[in-house]
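Protein Entry — a single chain follows
Next Lines — sequence and tokenised fold
***
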Amino acid sequence: MESGKVKVNRAPVLTLWAAVVAERMGYEWETALSFGKAVAGLNARAKGRSLGILKGPPKKGEGKKPKKVGLGEEFWVEVCGRPIPAKTTEAGVRAVVGPEPIDPAKVEKYLESKFGADLEVVREALRELAASYEPKELAEEAFGMYEQFRPQIAAGAKGWGQKGDLDLAVIRSLVG
């Protein structure tokens, strides 16, 4: 890490932030990891469609809260202002993509591959930020905070997949 900055794409930053937010909201870390990946995935698909990079309409029900369902079936949780589908599995609550629960171990490996040796210092800075807010207030403000500290990239399609600097000083400046 060079002078408190990490060169990284926005998707892993949002994945990690949403997981930290979900953890602060009271979810176990494994559950929170699956929620983080779902938030980043939904955000990426919406952004990709708006830029014309990804084709097709939103998946059925994407971004909308469905009717309540029975025990053991899919339900919805809001994290960082985005409703995500989830269900209870034998391993605990997990976000789902289609019928499949998101594997938290794969999310952790994804984060390790994107942040490398900087993962723990970034995770701790984000946890410090999250801990400085009450869970209800954090839930309401989380995406706006992300917009303030996310890496800066080129506008429009040029910025798709581009790495930018995640500045830990900016994250720490938001601590309430």
Notes: Residues 5-173 form one domain. The chain has a mean pLDDT of 84. The chain has six helices and six strands. The chain has one domain: 5-173.
